[in-house]
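Quick one:
INPUT:
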């Protein structure tokens, strides 16, 4: 039975827009409600308990908007706080398992790299999922703490020497390990995909978790008959906890579409 309710997507900030972009591209008829917790970004440096608390609040906000499923478009939440979604009344999609499947399918050597926030890398979640699928895999994981701030301030051009040298320094262990596949384990990181690709070269396959999870969501909706079949382009709403003007400025790049003034609303943290 068709379901016209919206798809809910949340992230600690703007990075999740790269996931929203892939969802909108593959499911143009679907309504989308996006929540970016820009007032408390980044989550990656927080404790596990705090991340779980924030994730639960984000999920409750989306449920108030009557969404039919929730995507945790946050590598940190997907890695360390998946259990915060165990009692959700709607289907839940996280980034780790889908990215791991895509990486295992892509690798030829079994040498897979993972980059993410400190919390994501420290959790070991990607490595566990990869080894379930490919027990002989060699996994090299690196925390890239400066990548999120670079993206948030709009520094992601491959022509920027500061950006390129920062990326090169962080990816040295990936290069030294001879990885032929790299999971971009934070949803901000696809914004840096151009410069990451330049640093690693054409022989390394980059895994964008947004593509993997958007494809999984599409398959799920089709197989369950819960796609929105109204025949019209979907409506997209955006909510943030701070700096809506900054959100609108960067969203045009990250989402690939201009967001009208009335589409971005700021909400108070106390309301979560």
């Amino acid at each position: 039975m068709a379901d016209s309710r919206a798809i809910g997507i949340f992230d600690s900030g703007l990075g999740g827009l790269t996931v929203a972009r892939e969802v909108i591209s593959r499911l143009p008829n679907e309504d989308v409600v996006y929540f970016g917790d820009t007032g408390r970004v980044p989550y990656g440096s927080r404790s596990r308990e705090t991340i779980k608390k924030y994730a639960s609040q984000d999920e409750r906000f989306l449920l108030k908007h009557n969404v039919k499923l929730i995507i945790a478009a946050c590598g940190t939440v997907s890695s360390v706080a998946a259990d915060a979604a165990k009692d959700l009344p709607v289907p839940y999609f996280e980034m780790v398992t889908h990215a791991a499947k895509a990486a295992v399918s892509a690798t030829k050597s079994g040498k897979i790299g993972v980059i993410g926030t400190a919390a994501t890398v420290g959790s070991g979640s990607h490595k566990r999922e990869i080894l379930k699928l490919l027990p002989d895999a060699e996994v090299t994981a690196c925390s890239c703490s400066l990548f999120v701030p670079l993206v948030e301030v709009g520094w992601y051009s491959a022509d920027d020497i500061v950006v390129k040298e920062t990326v090169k320094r962080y990816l040295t262990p990936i290069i030294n390990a001879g990885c032929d596949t790299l999971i971009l384990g934070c949803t901000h990181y696809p914004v840096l995909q151009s410069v990451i690709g330049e640093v690693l070269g054409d022989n390394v396959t980059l895994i964008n978790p947004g593509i993997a999870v958007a494809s999984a969501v599409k398959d799920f909706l089709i197989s369950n008959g819960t796609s929105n079949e109204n025949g019209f382009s979907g409506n997209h709403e955006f909510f943030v906890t701070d700096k809506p003007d900054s959100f609108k400025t960067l969203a045009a790049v990250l989402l690939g579409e201009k967001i009208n003034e009335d589409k971005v609303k700021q909400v108070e943290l106390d309301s979560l």
